[in-house]
Amino acid sequence: MKRLSREIVSFFSNQGCVIVSTIDAEGSAHSSCKGLVKISQSGRVYLLDLYRAKTYANLKRNRHISITAIDEYRFSGFCLKGKAKALQEGQLHSGIIRAWEARITSRLTQRLLRNIRGEKGHPRHPEALLPKPEYLIVMDVEEVVDLTPQHLK
Description:
Layout: H1 6-13, E1 18-23, E2 29-39, E3 44-49, H2 54-61, E4 64-71, E5 76-88, H3 94-116, E6 135-146
Antiparallel strand pairs: 1-2, 1-4, 2-3, 3-6, 4-5, 5-6
């Protein structure tokens, strides 16, 4: 497992969602949007998946995974590469569920505040309609790719 800097942990912790890429049965990349629950400096990342579909099937066949996040305003981003496993609902501990609930509550609060300010967005509150998570993705980071263009560092 690769140790992560505070900058990277903070960067990912502040993202509303991340792009998770896995490899499908034909060897092609499959990307989906997931909510990050927790990331540690030790190099472990936790994501709850709301649907047991393509990402789940891909991870059962091939544990290779990447997680990408960008900040368009700051023109920076990172891609974390490594291996992951899927933990079933019975294997989830209450701390992970509480962390996910706290992140969803925060997202709802931010959406409500933006709506009050009159900012345009989704007319409903999609976070409130999300289903219960199906399983947990636990990733061990093996490589970090800094996506910030070299001349802007």
